[in-house]
Design goal:
It is a single chain. The chain has 7 helices and 14 strands. By secondary structure, it is an alpha+beta fold. The protein has 2 domains: 138 residues, 2-Layer Sandwich (Fructose-1,6-Bisphosphatase, Chain A, domain 1), CATH 3.30.540.10; 112 residues, D-Maltodextrin-Binding Protein, domain 2 (3-Layer(aba) Sandwich), CATH 3.40.190. Strands 3-4-5-6-7-8-9 form a 7-stranded mixed beta sheet, sandwiched between helices. It has a 5-stranded mixed beta sheet with strand order 11-10-12-14-13, with helices on both faces. It is globular. 52% of the residues are buried.
């Protein structure tokens, strides 16, 4: 069952990514939702519809959790569901920056069975079922670095304008502990990079939407990493914050996350 869902997830993510990529760097109109930086395009809606069409071909009765339109906004505790983000990183997309992803995860009774993140503008496809994680068909694993002073860590998930002091504390906590900091503007890309060893960690104290996290969290865990909330408990949809690492110094990455709320 899980392998079937892996293949469906990959097919759906690739199909949605193809729709989004066709609109990338075409001067598409940009709309705002809840704020100046909460943007959406017709490409988001079209790509989500395409993802759902592919899923419905084989799983017509499953629930769908999606960022756009009237889909569910939380993961059901029981039953089968698909968690999708047609364009994670829309702010990058509308700026013609190639770091964005089409994300699809299959869950059952709250547990993730399959995860696929397609980054079409970069040519990367990350896939995981109940076995290894692959990128473009090659097996991937988390970074083997053990010294935090060699780590690259990301403050991920955007802090609103009324939370910029927390963003500043997140940056300070990272630069005081680790070798360097990155900021990509796409949570699914970041989690994919942790899973494939390009980064050692990612932190936020923001409560993360499932479409920004579920697929990437599964990739990190299947690749040998650790994902918790800011309290150090196992992350699940609805947890407070998200802390991902290669597992070699998770306590230090967790310290950085906790410092965000230290004031």
């Amino acid at each position: 069952m899980s392998e079937d869902r892996v293949s469906v997830a990959e097919r759906a993510a690739r199909a949605g990514a193809e729709v989004a990529l066709a609109a990338f760097r075409t001067g598409i109109d940009v709309e705002t939702k809840s704020g100046k930086t909460d943007v959406v395009t017709q490409a988001d809606r079209d790509a989500q519809r395409r993802v759902i069409e592919v899923i419905r071909e084989t799983h017509p009765e499953d629930a769908v959790v999606g960022e756009e339109e009237d889909e569910l906004k939380s993961v059901p505790e029981s039953g089968a569901a698909w968690v999708i983000d047609p364009i994670d990183g829309t702010n990058n997309f509308v700026r013609d920056t190639p770091v964005w992803a089409t994300s699809v995860a299959a869950v059952k009774d709250g547990e993730t069975l399959a995860a696929v993140n397609v980054l079409p503008a970069l040519g990367d496809v990350y896939v995981a079922g109940d076995g290894e994680v692959t990128r473009n068909g090659d097996a991937m694993s988390v970074s083997a670095k053990t010294d935090p002073e060699t780590f690259a860590v990301v403050p991920t998930i955007w802090w609103g304008f009324d939370e910029r002091e927390e963003y500043a504390r997140a940056c300070r906590a990272i630069v005081e502990r680790f070798a360097d900091m990155r900021r990509y503007g796409c949570a699914q890309a970041v989690l994919s990079m942790v899973a494939s060893g390009q980064l050692e960690g990612a932190v936020t104290n923001v409560d993360v939407n499932p479409w920004d996290s579920v697929a990437g969290v599964h990739l990190v865990r299947r690749a040998g990493g650790v994902v918790t909330d800011v309290h150090g408990d196992r992350w699940q949809p609805g947890s407070h914050g998200l802390v991902a690492s290669n597992g070699e110094a998770h306590d230090v990455v967790l310290e950085a996350a906790r410092e965000i709320e230290s004031a």
